[in-house]
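Dear colleague,

As promised, here are the two records you asked about, laid out in our usual form so they can be pasted straight into your sheet.

NAME FIELD: protein one
SEQUENCE, THEN STRUCTURE:
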Amino acid sequence: MKLSLTKEAQEKINGIRQAGDRIVLDFEDAIGPFVESGASCQLYPNFRVLFVPKEFPEAELVDYDDHLTTELGTVYVKSTSERYLDQETRLSVEPTYQRVQLVSDSGVLAANVPMKRIELKEGKTNAQISNRYGSSC
C-alpha cells in the first residue's frame, strides 16, 4: 500500500507536528493504546491522524504494524485497517471547509480525518488524546 500527502495536507500536519513526533494514521476500531471509546459514532470508516511524542515507548505502538513511507517520513498504520483503503491513498485537504480527507482515484474514503496530539501525563506510558484540535465525532 502507498500513502501520499498533498502539499496542503503536509502544511496542516506541519502546523501541529512537533519535533520528533511519530505520525500515526489510526483507524478507530477500539484496538491500540489510543482508544477513546469502544465504538465509533460514525457509520463509515473513521480514521484520524495522531501525533505521538518521541517519548512514547515504541513498544506501545505494536498494533501499528505497517510503516508507510511518505513525503513527511514514516506513518504508522494498523495493517488490519488497510482493508478500508485503496492501494494508492492520499491525505488531502478539501478546499471549501479545509477538512483533511483520505482519498484515492476511486473517490473519498474518509470525508473528515481529525488530527490530534497525544499528550503524555505522569510518565511515558500514560497518554491521552488532546481535544485541542476537535473531536472525532
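NAME FIELD: protein two
SEQUENCE, THEN STRUCTURE:
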Amino acid sequence: MAKAMKGGAVSESAPIYYEEMSKVAGKENDKQSITLIATDDAYNFGDYITLRSRTGHKPQVLTDRGAIISERMAGMMDAKVGDTITVTDSSGTERKVRVDGITEMHIGHFMFMTSGGYKHVFDEQYQSNAYMVRLKNHETSNVESRSAKLIKLDGAKGIVQNTTSKKQVATIVDLPDQIMEVLILAAELLAVVILYNLTNLNVSERIRELPTIKVLGGLGVLVYRRLKTVDMLGALKSVE
C-alpha cells in the first residue's frame, strides 16, 4: 500500500488516522455521522485540507489540546471554541473532546486532530490506518480511474473522493439558480398573459364606445343648431 502512494500518478501523500464517529443531535435528534481525521504531521496538513475560519479566513492551527471541528458540526452541536463536546467512537465508547477551533466547511461533519490530541482523547497510541493522496492530474475522470485501481490493492477497504463533495456543493449552489430561472420564466409568461388580456379588454371597450361617441357627436350638432336658431329669434325680438 505504501509503495502505491509514491510516484507515478500520485503527486504526494500523507498517512492519517481515519475513523467514522457519531453523535445523536440535530432537530430530529437522530444519529449523525462524524468523520475523524488525525495526523502526526500538522505542519503539512494544510497542503491537503484547508482549515480556516469563515470570518477573515483566519488559519485554524491544530494543537494537542483538542480538535478543530467543521462549521456544520459546530452548528449541529451548538458548540463554540473552548467548549467540550461528547462524541461516540466506532466501538460505542463516548469520548470528550475540547473544541480548539471551527473551520469553514459546509458539507458533512468533520473533526481534525493531531496525533498528540488523539492520544489524549482516546488514551492510546496513535497509529495511521489511511492515506491522504493528491494526484498529479485532478480531472474527474482520472480521479475515478485511479480510485478504481487503488481500491483493488491489498488492505484497501474504501476510498473517499473530494470530487464527490465538490459535486454535492455544486448541486446545492446551482439548485437555487435553477429554481430562480423557473420562477423568472413563469413570471414572464404570466406577464404576457396579463398584458394580452388587458389589451383585448381595452380594445373591446374602445369598440363599444365608438357607437356611443357617434350618437353623442350627432346629438351635439343638433343641439348646437337649435340653440343658434333660438339666439337668432331672440335677437330679432329685441330689435322690434
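A couple of things worth noting about protein two: The mean pLDDT is 78. Strands lie at 10-25, 30-39, 67-70, 84-88, 94-103, 110-114, 130-135.

Best,
R.
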